[in-house]
Amino acid sequence: MSTQGDAASVSGDPALLRIEGAIATITLNRPNAFNSIDLSIAKKLEQLSAEVEASDDIRVLVIEGEGRAFCAGGDLQTIGRAAAADTIAPVVGELLQHYHAFITTLRRMPKIVLASVHGSAAGAGLSLAFVADLCIAAEDARFTPAYSKLGVSPDGGGTVGVVASVGPRRAMQIFLAEDSFSAAQAYQWGLVAKVVPRAELKAATRELAHRLAENAPAGVAATKALIHRAHVTPIEQQLEAERDAIIDCMHTDEFRIAVKKFTSKRT
Questions:
Q1: Please, what's the largest Cα pairwise distance for the chain?
Q2: 31 CB neighbour count, 10 Å cutoff
């Protein structure tokens, strides 16, 4: 269930939704487990992202973590028990069915998704930070791929967001040859849009979210869709899609008003 205002009012939920005008915030809310992903939070995230996607009033979705970390990755208690009981396939399969539905919704929704990261973003937490459309990070943020240390491959959209941001060679380095890296390094690699002091993260996130929310929704939706399909679309089809999208955007009231305002300044 979504809430207006203070997310702490339903602090028993593993994830919380707060809506303030055109900006929605999903808070990962398992602070005692460093917001690691278990079945309960995966199901809740799937539900909350569907609510955000269905709302025409929301233009930006912020994802943040409660407590000392953004997200420490998959819940190793759950996975460890499944390994001991030889139930990896059904347990992890069900977990990722819901969690990957959440990730798919983030990529598909015609709204900008902004990850706001502090503390640790490890494994699936790193994947979540970079599968979002944009990421803002506190100076204390630490990104830890973690997968190779456990002898596993990435999940949670890690190979989608990281590869799209830095290319295959740097992604190979990140997932196989980096123990961890700082927010400053992530910024240098183009994974993070902005790095701010920890005390300023919430205010800077709010400022960036409001800036993004000022954009006309038709233009945002078309831009996001075009960018995410560009790397798998032949040039002719991509240019056709650009043509169709810009014409559609030009049929909106927002475009007509903006053009009139712009041209009136020049006359």
A1: 75
A2: 14
Residue 73 structure tokens? 């990755």
- Helix (H) and strand (E) counts in the chain: 12, 9
Torsion angles phi and psi, residue 119, rounded to 5: 60, -140
User: The tokens of 68 are what?
Assistant: 């000392």
Domain locations in the chain as residue ranges:
7-213, 217-265
Contacts of 267 (CB under 8 A, 6+ apart): none
Q: How far apart are CA 244 and CA 249, in angstroms?
A: 9
CA pair distance 23, 79, nearest whole angstrom: 34
Q: Would the pTM of this model clear 0.90, i.e. be above it?
A: yes
Q: Are 117 and 129 in contact (CB under 8 A)?
A: yes
Nearest partner of 26 among 114, 130, 140, 122, judged by Cα? 114
Nearest-Å Rg of the Cα atoms of the chain is: 19
Question: 7-213 — its CATH code?
Answer: 3.90.226.10
Give, rounded to a whole angstrom, the gap between the first and last alpha carbons of the chain.
Answer: 51
| pLDDT tens string 71-125 | 999 999 999 999 999 999 999 999 999 999 999 999 999 999 999 999 999 999 9
